[in-house]
Amino acid sequence: MSVASELEARSESKCELCQATENLSVYLVSPGENETLDNSILVCGKCQAQLNESEPADPNHWRCLNDTIWSEVPAVKVQAYRILHGLRAEGWPQDLLDMMYLDEEELKWAQSTLLQDGEAVIVHKDSNGMTLANGDTVVLVKDLDVKGGGFTAKRGTAVRNILLVADNAEQIEGKVNGQQLVLLTKFLKKS
To answer: Could you tell me which residue ranges the PhnA protein N-terminal proteobacterial domain spans (predicted)?
Structure first.
């Protein structure tokens, strides 16, 4: 059975991103050289044109990803993540990214080709896997001893207007008791 036939069976002959039923073709979710059932998805002509950038991006077309993010197919979730990540400046895609669940392997795959100014994008996630952004408010989920500060930052303390550490996805900066601290994201919860 060919990859295209297997994809048609898996998707019930619908685009795996927007559910359209016409002009379907196989799309390879990079990185990868050979189309397999695990690294390919079935897409319609409109999705294909936008993914290949042969047609101008239409953010409203991608509102269909509201349902797609719940797919059980890793390649579909990875491609949805990449599309939403590219559109996050629109506002609504960030909400979907915050709701979306990818396991560690899927997240690594999704982020493997995300580039910003020629460098890989670092995504900061809190202890619940929610994506953090500059200016967010977070809450400590554990009492933390502040070395050199002479105090303990108590569980439940709100840290407002955080700054993401650009080269480390596990750290943010924020003020606690008037002191600027570097905090580990695994001890924080987005509020």
So the answer is: 6-52
Q: Who's near 84: CB < 8 A, 6+ residues apart?
A: 62, 65, 69, 93, 94, 96, 97, 100
pLDDT in tens, 160-180: 999 988 767 788 999 998 899
Give the number of other CB atoms < 10 A from CB of residue 8.
16
Domains of the chain: 3-118 (no CATH), 138-190 (2.30.30.40)
Amino acid at 182: V
Please tell me the pTM assigned to this model: 0.60
Q: 75-96 pLDDT, tens per residue?
A: 999 999 999 988 888 888 988 9
